[in-house]
Amino acid sequence: MPMELRSFLAIATILISGFLIVLTLMQARGTGIWGSTGQEASFRTRRGMQRTLHRMTIVVAVVFVAIAAWSVAAS
Q1: 74 and 12 in contact (C-beta within 8 Å)?
Q2: Is residue 46 predicted with pLDDT exceeding 80?
Q3: Are 55 and 28 in contact (CB under 8 A)?
């Protein structure tokens, strides 16, 4: 395997994992209206930015798994 591909996969894995950590931390649980009362809502829908962050987290997680699998298969 060429060293360039190995370096690319290592750098891509590091960058994507950092981005995934940031996205996950941005979705802190209990920061909404129910977090201040100590209660959890029995049913809550994600709206606006929450929905976008949730979907982005899923997409980035899938990309991370794909690159990690590619890295393992290529080595």
Answers
A1: no
A2: no
A3: no
Write the secondary structure of 2-32 as one string of H (helix), E (strand) and C (coil).
CHHHHHHHHHHHHHHHHHHHHHHHCCCCCCC
- Alpha-carbon 74 to chain mean position: 23
Percent of residues, the chain, with pLDDT higher than 70: 73
Contact 10, 75 (CB under 8 A): no
Residue 58: name the closest of 28, 19, 32, 30 by CA: 19
Range of the domain at 44: 3-74
At 20-45, the pLDDT tens digits run 999 999 887 655 554 555 555 555 66
Counting the structural domains of the chain, the total is 1
